[in-house]
User: Fold NADH-ubiquinone oxidoreductase chain 4 from Nephotettix cincticeps.
Amino acid sequence: MMALLFFMIFMTPLCFINLPMIFQYSNLLILIWLILTGCGSFYNKISYFMGVDIISFNLILLVLLISSLMIISMMNYNWMSSFLFINLSLNLCLLIIFTSMNFLYMYVSFEFVLIPLVILIIGWGYQPERLMSGMYLLFYTMLVSLPLLILLVYIYMDLGSLFFDMMKLHSNFFLIHFILMIVFMVKMPMYLVHFWLPKAHVQAPVSGSMILAGLMLKIGGYGLIRSSFLYEYMYTKYSYIWFTISMLGSIYISITCLMQSDMKCLIAFSSISHMGLVIMGLINLSNLGLMGSYYLMLAHGFCSSGMFYVANIFYSRTNSRSFYINKGLMIYLPSGCIFWFMFCCFNMSCPPSLNFISELMILTSMVNFWNNSIYFFIFISFFCACFSYYLFSFSQHGLYSSLYSFSNMTCYEYLCMYIHLIPLIFSPVMISSFF
Assistant:
């Protein structure tokens, strides 16, 4: 893994010669090398306290693929060399998070990833409110992560190690459990600590929305998976608290989606609802729940990122994200309608998508945890279908503001949308090779 990190570090000169395609090909070269070398069921490619296993392997592939799609989405923007450097910094931080075998390495990268992300939002955002959204993101994360640093010092003094395979907590103190949980719940985000996400999404450029939805929310789920092996007893003892908040919060957020008038804001709130399902799958410590949540994180990474990209295609042509202005886009941009329809269908977990398989697994684990949770799951699925249908019908149908107009899409835009869709459709076919 250290060779992979050095390869990415030596990609830095490519950022400043302003040749984004060479930078992107280098990303894809790493992606192909990782796919060909494969991964075992436990840590391998170990070097300098870094390794990769089956959980982090697919998330690393997601990082490299989404970062390549970010470059496609920002082709016509200014300050391209600076954007490539920010992209490389985000890739390095996320790679260290997903490959670190030491909790301290993971914590340092977890904190440092905020700096390039805030620069991306403030530097390439749309409106003056981006300063406040960057501040929300920064302080929400810092508020919960500073107690984690104190906890890591305490764990090191008690156990003498911060390696994941050597840490085993035996404390029954609820505060330790709360600190280890809330730091990842904010990153997902969980309902009640989700206020930073809609603000960051609305003010961020399209690449910022893609990396927020596709990658940043997965840090929380990955952290929950890693920390769940440290102390199973506390997870099982207090899991009902997080299960209840996520279950009720997903229903409330799904209803809130129906009251939105901004495309990006609705997609951001739908991400919170889906992350609530991920929490419910992870928190019951069942095999089906872990697999379903893991698959849903991967599916959400492609589906939500693709929806933000298509919403930006509409915004770049109509200069508005409002449902009240974007009417009849089926007439104005007919080639984008089918992609928008497929993303909305996959967002409501229609077969044969990976979302459908993962939500079936999560439903089974929820029923095993509490029988009556099936009624709440029905409400969540129903309202998810409602706001996905609302998102499609309000923008595509109706009378367009001009008498007649037509707009074509570029080859780059088709390529980016196809790459978002292909893993969602073909991943269920290869799902047996994941575990």
Summary: The longest strand covers residues 44-47. The chain has one domain: 102-432. Residues 228 and 235 are 7 Å apart (CA to CA). The mean pLDDT is 86.
